[in-house]
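In response to reviewer comment 3 from the previous cycle, which asked for concrete evidence that the modeling workflow produces usable outputs, we include below a single protein chain processed end to end. The sequence was submitted unchanged, and the resulting C-alpha cells are shown without manual editing.
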Amino acid sequence: MSAAKKAETNNQQHFSADVSRLLDIVANALYTNHDVFLRELVSNSADACDRLRYQSIEKPELIADNPNFRIHIFKNTDTRTLTIFDNGIGMTAKELADHLGTIAKSGTAKIMEAAKKSDDPLSLIGQFGVGFYASYMVASHVKVISRKAGAKAVNVWSSDGATGFTVDKATADETALLDGDRGTAIILDIKDEGVEFLIDEKIKQTIETYSDHINVKIFLNTPQDTDNGQGNPINSASAIWTRSKSDITDEEYLSFYRHITHGFDEPLLTSHWRAEGKIEFSALLYVPMMRPWDLYDPSRKDAVKLYVNRVFISDGLDGLMYPWMRFVRGVIDSSDLPLNISRESLQFNPIISKIRTSVTKRILSDLDKLSHDDWPGFITFWGQFGAAIKEGLYDAAEHREALFKICRFYSTHDNGDKFTSLDEYVDRMGENQKEIYYITGENLDAIKNSPQIEGFKARGIEVLFFTDTIDDFWLQNVTSFKDKDFKSVTKGDIDLGDAPKNENDKDDEADKSDHKDLLERMKSILEDEVDSVRISKRLTDSPVCLVAPEGAVDMNMERVLKIHQNYQGQSKPVLEINAKHSLIKKLETLEPASENFSDATKLLLDQARIIQGEAIKDPSGYARRMANFMERGL
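The workflow returned the following C-alpha cells.
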C-alpha cells in the first residue's frame, strides 16, 4: 500500500447517515440550477477575505505579503477540474474538519424534515447554510487546500460527498496552488452534467449574474497570471450599499439580496438609504418573503452585517439590531465607529445604539408605508413575522407607537375574517365605550366561538382576537392605547349594562331576580373548584362560561406560563351562568338537595372547562353523570 493510500486510510472520517442523505438532497434537488454552486463558493471566498481584512487591522503582518484581496476562478480542460481560489483568512486542519465535515451542527435533522415538506428545495440552501455542498451538483470529488493566515501548515480536505472525507497535510504540488502565505483553493472534479463550467464564457456570465456586486475582485485566471491582483476583474467589485440608489437596478438589488441570504426568494421590502447628521452610516436592508426556519430559536442572532468604512466587522453583533428585528437581512456601514477595538467592546459603543434606533425607525416607517401601498405584500409580511414584531411591544417602549401602527389583529368586526389596526378599532368604538376589549387564545376559530364574547357581539362591541403567545406577555407591560385601557373579556366582572343591546336581547321579569339561592347552592357544590358563581353579563346563548377573578392571572396566560415557564400557580376561576338560558331556568326548579341538581351543576362546570380548552379533572365522574342524564333524557 502506498504512503498516500495509508494516509488516506488513517485519516478517513465518515459522514453520519443523516449527513449523507442531506448531501444527496443538496446535490440532486438543485439539478435544474447548477449556477448556484459557483455563487455559493464565490460568496464563501468573499467572506473569507472580509474576515481577514478585519483581523489585519489589529495584525497588519497577516497581509503584509499581499494586501490586495482577490478571488481567482480557473479551469483545466485536460484534467476536467475547476478551481476557485481566494487569498482570504484560510482554515486550519481542525477548521476544515469542523466546517466542512460536520454539517450536523447546521441542524441536519431540521433540514431533512424541511426538505420533505418544501415545494422549493432550492430555498433550503440559504436557510440552512449548507451552500458549500452545492459543489456536488457538478463535481464528483471536491478537494479544499487551505493555509490559515499567519500559520505555516497547509492542509487538504477531500471528499466524494458520499463515503466520508479526509484531512491530510498538503503535498508540494498542492501547496503551490496557493498564491502567497494564506488562502484557500477549492478544486472540483467536474462531472459530465457540469462540463459547461469548463467554458470561460459560462463562468463569466454566472459571475456577472450572481456575484457582480461582491466587494472583492474576481479574476478569470490563475493567481500567477495577474500582477499581484492588479489585473482586470470580471466583476465591478464595488460595495453596492455605497452607490447611489439611482445607479442600482432592481436586478442588482435582487442579486445582492440572494448573495447575503443564499436564498432564491425575492424580498418583500428593500430599504436603502444614507443617514447623515450626528451619526453617518449607509444601510441596505431587506425584509424577506420567507420566514427563517430558526426565527423563534432562542439562540438565533440577527443577520445584519456591520462594516466600518467598507471593512467587514461582524455578521451578528449584539446590540446592532433589536432581537425582534432578527428577520431583517442586509448591511450597515458606519463612518463613525473605530476600527481598532474588539468586537466585544464595539457592542457597548454608544454609536451602535444610535444606529439601532435610527434603523428601527426607518424599517418600521417603511413597513407602515407598505401597509398602505401594498396590502397583499404587507399581509404576507405580517403572517410571517407579526409575532416577532409584537415582541417589540414588550421590550422596546421607545418604539411602541410606531409598532402599534403596523400591528394587525383579527376581531369580531367582519366576523373575524379581516385584519384590523388599533387605530381602526378605536375609530369604531361607541361613544360610551371606555376600554379596548380583547380575548387571548391559541386557536382563532376556537376563540371566535367563545361564550365570553357573546354579550359583546350582541351589543355590537368589538373584541380583538390575540392568538400569539407573545400577546399574553406584552399585555403585561402595555396597559392602554390612546388613553383606552386594554380589558380582557375573560377576566374580572364586566358590566355591559350601558351598552346598546341587540334587538333580540330582551329582558323579562324572571331575569330581574338576583338568583341568590341558586348561586349559593351551586357554590356550595363547587366549593373546591371555583372562586365564586355569579350571574353573567357576558353570556347570551351559552348557559355557562369561566373567567379569571379580578386581579388574578388571565386563564390563557396561566396556561402559557405552565407550558413555557413551569408555572406552578393555580387560581380558581369564576363560574358565570346565563340566567336567561332555559337550562339554568330548569336547574333552578330542581330540588337543591337532589342528586340531579348536584350532577347538573358539576356537568355545567365541566362543560365550561371543555369550552375553555381545559382538561376535565374527573373524566370518569363526568362520563357517569353524562350517561345518567342521557338515559333519563332518552
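The mean pLDDT is 85. We consider this sufficient to address the reviewer's concern, and the full set will be provided in the supplementary archive.
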